[in-house]
Amino acid sequence: MSVCPCGSRLEYVGCCGPLHDGAAAPTAEALMRSRYSAFARGLVPYLLRTWHPGTRPGELELDPGITWRALQIVDTVDGGPADDTGVVEFRAVARTAGGERHVQHERSTFRRVDGRWVYLDGGTGPLVR
């Protein structure tokens, strides 16, 4: 068994694994955590499937030199089981192949489409050291 990359300290099979296998995320934060885990595990189809159709790129190529190391949830606004929109602010720590540390700080917007949470967009800043 392996610990889930999302930082929940739960086993992957009981945390983000079911979402990656097709279960609906109950909250915007759960979807954000599962998307982080998908980046960490290289699950491009999941990332595209959980992206809002109006903002989804035609294709997505992950940098194989990036290793995602940690996730910190900074703030959440709405995004609960009874909401249709939500915001999750987070910091994701990564290392490059050359060993440089980077932090992705984003305030992401999520929306329900056909009853399922999807990533709409993020106020992404540049990766910082």
Automatic annotation (TrEMBL):
<protein>
    <recommendedName>
        <fullName>UPF0225 protein GCM10009539_26730</fullName>
    </recommendedName>
</protein>
<dbReference type="InterPro" id="IPR032710">
    <property type="entry name" value="NTF2-like_dom_sf"/>
</dbReference>
<dbReference type="InterPro" id="IPR023006">
    <property type="entry name" value="YchJ-like"/>
</dbReference>
<feature type="domain" description="YchJ-like middle NTF2-like">
    <location>
        <begin position="27"/>
        <end position="122"/>
    </location>
</feature>
<dbReference type="Pfam" id="PF17775">
    <property type="entry name" value="YchJ_M-like"/>
</dbReference>
<dbReference type="InterPro" id="IPR048469">
    <property type="entry name" value="YchJ-like_M"/>
</dbReference>
<comment type="similarity">
    <text>Belongs to the UPF0225 family.</text>
</comment>
